[in-house]
Amino acid sequence: MSAFASLLQRDLLLAYRQGVDALIVVFFFLVAGVLFPFAVGPMPELLSRMAAGVVMVMAALAALLSLDRMFQADLEDGGLDQIAMAPIALELVILAKALVHWITASLPLLVAAPLLSIMLHLSPAEIPSLLGALLLTTPALSLLGTLGAALTLGARCASLLLTLLILPLYVPILIFGIAMANPVVLNIGQVFIPLTILTAMDLGLLAIVPWASAAAIRLALR
Hints:
Number of domains: 1
Order of helices and strands: HHHHHHHHHH
Number of helices: 10
Largest sheet: none
Helix content: over 70%
Radius of gyration: 18 Å
Mean pLDDT: 83
Low-confidence stretches: none
Distance between the termini: 30 Å
Shape: elongated
């Protein structure tokens, strides 16, 4: 088994043992989304128009919950120093961490999203476009979150600093994600533009984040 696969297996096993974290993410996603109608009133037509945006924003906020612990536990027990000295590129370690975050924090939201969408009166016929938008948006959210976690590693009030740093960067991703998921833009011509931009964002972040995060972690370990 390659070092990357071993690291991925290790982090997934640790996440599985702390399964309550994934449950908290899903619980926050559902509860925060269900509370939203109290702010606008029980108007099905209005809720259905806003449902896609609400689901996307709740997914972004839920993904933030577990970011501050991405590297912190390894830093505290000395494991991060050993990983940095291991015969595996630190960039691959970052990539494994981002993938584990997506699997444990974002993938469950794809399962829970149809339930929240129905609660918000989104038509069942419109749910596939929302899931497609989430599938393209959540990898970018995890990659950006990984970068934020690396930049704030070891800092005071890291959770607050991470939130302030990452939330503004989430905005462009959410704009195009909502544009793709919005029921108004369901024809192929209109969906193609946000789909292309989201794909380009995912690939661009995939190319940049591992190296930028690795540089930030090396600086934090000095």
